[in-house]
Amino acid sequence: MIEVDQNTTHAPQDEDTSKRRQILDGAREVFMELGFDGASMGEIARAAGVSKGTLYVYFTDKTALFEAIVEEETRTAVLFSFDPDRDIATNLTGFGEAYIALVCRPGGGSAIRTVMAIAERMPDVGRRYYDRVLEGTINCLTTYLRGRVEAGQLAIDDCQLAASQFHLMCQATLFLPFIFQAEPAPSPERISKVVASAVRMFLANYGVKG
What we know:
Elements: H1 6-9, H2 11-38, H3 41-48, H4 52-58, H5 62-74, H6 88-103, H7 108-118, H8 123-150, H9 159-171, H10 175-179, H11 188-206
């Protein structure tokens, strides 16, 4: 009877996963620097430290590679855990700061700009990014707000609209300057200041007057 070394049976799969990770990291670097149109499979292969032949083993073309990167980006969407033992202001503050830290993180802006640039030609990619990263984040907040309305702690007729409003208030003076490269990624202190203002405005409008 031949004994199989369990430590070696997974080696090919581990190597495959590692190689794919290596390619994605190199491709991300090229796409973020050159954009979708400026990137080439040759440039990506060089950045990843692999041959073009190896590149095509894992991805059929540049579009498939870019879609894989977008898919990874969508997994970073804010899935904020609202704490029922904390007050609404604290939960909104935590949510807003987490969201802005995500979309305005160094490198994050490049991903958004790249998706925006090709969304007209590749609408499925743009729609998937929007649904999972942006709309998914709003839906997360919407669910929380509905719970607070049912508990009598907020007075909101349209929780989806209210969530979208808060989402945009948190971006004020931060997101657009960052995404258009007019300013660097905002500091945690700047994010906290803007989000705190958004929370005050939100509760002034939707808070239950006691």
